[in-house]
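Open question from group meeting: does this chain pack into something compact, or does most of it stay loose? Before anyone orders reagents, we agreed to write out a predicted structure and look at it together. Recording both the input and the output here so the notebook holds the full record.
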Amino acid sequence: MEYRRLGNSGLKVSALSLGGWTTFGGSVKDQSLTRQIIVRAFESGVNFFDIADIYANGEAEKMMGAVLKEFPRHTLVISSKTFWPMSDDVNDRGLSRKHIFESVHKSLKRIGTDYVDMYFCHRYDVETDLEETARALDDLVHQGKILYWGTSEWSGAQIAEAVGIARRYNLYPPQVEQPQYNLLHRRIENEIIPITSPHGMGLVVWSPLASGLLTGKYDKSLPPDSRLAREDWLRDMVMKEERLARVRALKPIADKLGISRAQLALAWALHRPEISSVITGATRIEQLEDNLKALDVTLSEAVLKKLDELFPVE
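Structure tokens returned:
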């Protein structure tokens, strides 16, 4: 396993990490299978495990936490997030001081840990003054409840504003952004990296396989047991014929390298030095092990050029 610095911090995270979005507590409800996957990931060198309170409405934190507590805490990097509504209560959402404090304590209890290494603002909150949010997170760092805080799916301007406020008031600044990043979704190259890199922020990216589209499993049809079959909103956003055509054209490139399209897509995301970790999901041991093989793939400049031509920055 390769370990990379989280931006200019001293924290090191595994290049490939394991997340709980749509899997643990969602498509995977078997605790024994959850344990098998997480233990195998840990044994393979994965030290970063990404969760959120909204994942299966807290169940992902409970299921992953039950397994993670088996390992020495210092060997783990655990993250969680807050923003999305967790109930119908008017204050049980957003990035107010009240919701942040209540959310982090609930997450810590569900995971079964005294602190999380990273705590993400899961989206930008237009209804809360950013200084309030930054001060609340700074307080949590001082209390030892979180070690670093970050943003997820924020715009470059919003991230820059957060850094500016932190510097102005001598607060801990955001250390990491968690954006979507894959061959079909490359906006961070022009919009986010020019902001995060100068500020020494790391990037931990999600959906590197575009919800499975880049694996080729949707080339001909929509498997009834697949994620896109279950999630209407995700299917409408991801599954477009123009995209499917480009994914099919990816197969000969992967075949020539003797790897799967999934491994090629993961290796492509890993090749960028700005990426601290690529967050993967797994519902089977075999899927996890297949993903881990991407760590052994080195892409030549010629292959990278072909991929740029097939999947240009849009």
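Observations to bring back to the group:
The first strand starts at residue 3 and ends at 5.
The chain has one domain: 3-211+268-297.
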